[in-house]
Structure formats: structure tokens, C-alpha cells
Amino acid sequence: MLLDQDVSKGTLRRPEQGAVWHEPGVYRADIDGLRAIAVLIVLLFHTGISPLRGGFIGVDVFFVISGYLITKAIWHELQQGTFSLLTFYERRTRRILPALVFAVAVTLVCAPLVLFASERATTVWTGLAALTSVSNLYLAVETLGKSGYFAADVYSQPLVHTWSLGVEEQFYLVFPFILLAVSGWGRWCAGAAVAATAFASFLFGLWLTGANRDLAYYVPVSRAWELIAGGLLVFLPLPRLPARIRDGLALLALALILGSAYRFHGGMFFPGVFAVAPVAGAVVLIAIGSTGGSHVTRFLALPPFVGIGKISYSLYLWHWPIFVGVALTTARAPTIPEAIGLLLASVAAAYLSWRFVEQPFRQRRIGRTAGSLWRLAGAAWCLCCLLGLGIWHFAAALPQTESDRLATYLTYDDRDVYRRGTCFLIGYQQTVADFAAADCLSPSRVKPNVLIMGDSHAAHLRSGFETALPQAHVMLSASSGCKPLIGVGGDPECVGLMRMMFQRFLPENRPDVLILSARWADEDLPLVAETLRQLKDKAGTVVVSGPIVEYQRPLARLLAQLAGGRSDALLVESRTTEQVQRDRDLQAVVETAGAIYVSPYRLLCPNPDTACRTTVGDVPLQWDYGHLTAEGSKVLAEAIIGTGAIPGARTWQVKAP
User: Which end of the chain is more exposed for a tag (fewer CB within 10 A), N or C?
Assistant: First the structure.
């Protein structure tokens, strides 16, 4: 049984009977196997064709592993009196910087081959931020904050995944000082202080996830508890449980990780409380591997998993630039054979990076001393910065091409067009109290009232109807991801807004025309029928707007590629197909219920075998996968009015003399 040295008292203390302290310096093959599970989850998720909608939780597993291993190393050195901040940061530099510099440099060099001018600028600044360990903050504050709510397409950002490295490095700028401060308290008191820090971070993360999910995802304070959760194992004497119990707990832990990867999705309030599941799974697997192991941990220690685990850092770094390059070129999701090819290419690139970049620095074949390492790191950092700034300056100095002009719509500002923040709420950033009812829901006494309700696919119709119907009063009540259905569940802010509309506003005001629009799903159809049944006496005319044309990549980018010489077939190949059947099914439900149905899909795409209508003059009709520009909104509104779906609307189009 291992002895634990209590430096604060100068004695050796034996842990509780049947318990195990974590022995420093002992290689854990099962942890490399757990790394492999984490990175494979991320890779499969990023292929876009796997059922792992929550594959982003692989990063949370990485956080736990990192927190455990580094806390164990720091705490052991503190207890031995050998800890040095300079040595710690030298090790972090050897581990992180060489492969990162190489990946960023290659990505920046290749960026002009596949990215447009506006995309290159974002990639350059993300790369420079990554080298400075602040790409998470850059992406949260700059990239996501300046574009529309729907943000820039991640498939145009080959370095967006470096956000997690920023979270880790910012955490390790602070956490060693916390351990230093409590190192003389003894293991139990120090553990309690570290646990209190984790709990404070967890509570802050819960609050911030509810207030602003984007910031909670990227800010290190709201993620710190995940790394500390792994570190807390260092302070706990773990009991040696019977083998059957260890096997059962390990299976449950693995199920938590894999189940989270399968069941979670991007629309959830994450990290928040949902992050507890994958974090707990990783913590339990590490703990079980420390106390005798299990069938699961022995499975994770098999050579294939260990091999992937050893190259997992380089694999994480390289897979996304490779995936993005192919995705931008093909403008569609990969087929299964293509996805396998992408995975193999990523593994090959990762092995080369691990073998010829990571290992020479970690084994001190390059940069043998701390001084030489810092000099090399500084020189590489400066060269990357010069390279990035040169690419950015070169792109800015070139005359704008038609492709570059069209690509600027990738960061289309939807705030005024969609009335974002007032009549169109961002559900995970705002509450019903933020809804500007006096501005958005004030019925006119002299004009016909048209009310549009739903999610972002309702918000993007507002400006078009307002322009096309100058003699009508157009109102909007919308929230992100919020279906205009009675009995809808999910986001409490959506539920609150819809309850207010159906139970109070509609019975009291009865608009002349009520338009329900959303990004409909198959599971919505029964609720659509019930909602229409209950709305028969709450509006003069009820119109349901069906699915719109959607693309696998932003339409603005596809048009930019066409302007650069690509074939029109790109517009057909990139168009998604599931909306065709959903359009027919929804129409049947709506017309059976006695309401009016309009099909934006068929209005924009009358011939499914050819390209749909995609521009209004020289402006893209849609700017991302399916949301309308102001010009596109007007075109679609006029097309809907032209079908006669809105009684009397033709007279509302004529301005009074």
C-alpha cells in the first residue's frame, strides 16, 4: 500500500484501510484509451454523418483527463518540495506549442486556396489568438458577437476548434497558484478548498449558461469545474470496491459518455447542468482505473485505443482543418466512404505531427534547455504572426472580386431585418421580459393587422411582408428555435412566449391574418393539427408557411463559388432534400384542418431537378443555410401574396393616394 507524505506535518501518513491514493508517475494505458474515446467522439461528430449529435462532449472528457493528470503531477511535486512554476510552464509549452504552431502555420498557408477574403481574415485572427491562448475569447466576443444570431458557418473557420486550448491554458495560468496557496494545508483541507473552487465555478457556469450560452461555452471560469473535477480525484482516497461493482460502475460511466454523445444536441443549454453527465462518466472511469480496474478500463488499455490516445492531441488539431478544407470544396456533407477517408487522412496527419513535431520537443531532441525552448517558441510565434498578418494584409490590399463581395453575406447582420432582440428573442440569451410588446404587438385600429409567429423562420418573413403590404400593419412574435404551437415544450422562454400569445394576445386582439412559420420537423405535425383546431376563432385567416429551401452550406458561399467558376450543379448538389416530403406532409395536415398552406419551397424551387431561385438582382436571396436576406424576404412575401393565400392582401399592396 502506498504511503502519502504529509509535508505540512513532516510525517508519513497511511491512507484509510482499503483505499488508494493516486500514485504519481505511473503510466495509465486506460487513460490514453479514454483519450481515444474522447477524440473519436469529436471526430465522428464532426463528420456530420454520424448519429452522435452531442459529440462536442468529447472536449469535456479531455478537460477531466487534463485536470486529473496535471493536478496529480503538481500536487506530488508540491508535496516533495520540487515544484517550479517555470518548469511547469516549460512542460506545457513543450506539450502544446510546437504542434499548435505547425498546425496554425500550415492552415494559414493553405487558407487562400479555399477561403474567401472575409473568411481568411477571421482565420488569421483566430490563428493568432490561438497562438496567444485566447482564441476562445476571440471567438466569443468578436466572431459570434458581431455577426447575426446564427453566426458564421463553422465550416468556414478551420481553426475554430482551438477554443478548447484557450480554455485549458487560461485555466493553468491560475490553477497552479491555487494549489500553491493550499499546499501546506494537508490533503483533506486542500481538497476541500479545491472542491469549493469547483463548486463556485459550477454555479457560475449554471448562471452564465442561462444568461448567455455562447459565453458560457467559451469562458474558462464556467468550464474550470470540469478540469477541477478530474483534479479532485488526487485528494480522495478511493475505496477498493469488489470487481463486480467496479465493472458495473465502469459500464455506467462509459454509458454516460456515449449516451451524452448520442442524446445531446446543439440546441441544449450546454455546458450547464448537462455537462455533469460526461464529466461524471470520465471521473468514474479514471477512478475505477486507479483502484484495480475493470473490464471497461482493460478494454480501453488495448493497443488500438492507446495508439489513438497517444496521438489524440495532434489528431484533434489536424482533423478540423482537413474536414473544413474538404467541406468547403465539395459544399456538402461527406458520403460514408468520404468520411472514412477524412478520418484516415486525419490519423495520418496526426501521426506525422506526433512523430516529427511533438516527440522531438517532448523528448528534448529539439530545444533541450528551457532557454533554447523559449527562444524557439518566441521565434516560431513571431514567424506565424508575420505570416498571418501578411496574408491578412495581402487579402485586404487586393481588389474585391465578385466572389469576395458575395462571401461578405456570410456575416449578414440580421438585427434590424429580423428585429432581433426586440420582436425576435434569442431564447438562451433573453427572457420573455425582454420582448418589446408595446413595439411588436400593438394592433392598428385603422389598418388590417397581420401577425407573424414562430422562430427565426418567422422573423425572416417580417421585413418582406412589411415592405410588400404598406397598407397593412405587420406584427411579429418570435423566439429562436420556438415553434408556434399549443402545447410546445422545451425552452421555458419559448413556452412562456407562446403561452402569452395563445392564451392572452390572440383571444383579446384577433388579427386579420395570422401567419405561423417555423423550421418545421416531422414530430411537429400532430401539434400543428391541434393548434389549428384551437385557433379557428382567434384570427380572421390562419396561414401556415411551410419549409423553405435549405442548403448544406451557406447559400452566400455557394454563390461566391459559382462566381469563381464552379458549375451551377453545385446549387443542386448542396441542397438538402428532406424538406420536399415534409412540405407535402405538412400541407396535408394544414388543409385537413381547414387552414391555408403556402409552400416557400415550391415558390422558390418549382423544379426540384434544377437550381432554385437564389438571387435578387446581385444580392443572395438567402445568406446562410436557409434564412432570408431583406431582399429575399420581400421576394418571398410577394410570391406568397401572389398565390392568393392572404385574402384582401392584393388591395393592401396599393398605397393610398
Answer: C
Alpha-carbon distance of 208 to 490, in angstroms, equals 19
pLDDT tens digit sequence for 136-195: 998 887 755 554 444 556 778 899 999 999 999 999 999 999 999 999 898 899 999 999
Q: What is the DSSP string of 10-30?
A: TEEEPPPTTEEPPPTT---HH
Name the nearest CA neighbour of 29 among 257, 289, 244: 289
CATH 3.40.50.720 fits 410-652, yes or no: no
Domain ranges of the chain: 4-12+29-402, 410-652
CB burial of 2-11 (b: ≥16 within 10 Å; e: otherwise) equals: eebeeeeeee
Radius of gyration for the alpha carbons in the chain, expressed in angstroms and rounded: 28
Q: Which residues pair with 479 in a beta bridge?
A: 425
- The answer to whether 3 and 12 are in contact (CB under 8 A) is yes
CA dist 45 and 59 (Å) reads 12
- 3-class DSSP assignment, residue 240: coil
Name residues whose C-beta falls within 8 Å of residue 362's C-beta, 6 or more positions apart in sequence. 94, 95
DSSP annotation string for 341-369: HHHHHHHHHHHHHIIIIIHHHHTTSSS-S
**Amino acid sitting at position 159:** L
pLDDT, tens digit (0-9, with 9 covering 90-100), for 502-528: 999 999 999 999 999 999 999 899 999
CA 170, CA 179: separation in Å to the nearest integer? 15
Residue that is written with C-alpha cell 449554471 in the block: 206
Claim: this prediction has a pTM higher than 0.70: yes
Phi then psi for residue 476, to 5 deg, are -140, 135
DSSP code string of 495-546:
HHHHHHIIIIIHHHH--SEEEEE----GGGHHHHHHHHHHTTTSSSEEEEE-
Coil vs helix vs strand at 479: strand
Give the C-alpha separation, 312 to 27, whole Å.
16
558 Cβ contact list (under 8 Å, min separation 6): 331, 551, 570, 571, 574, 614
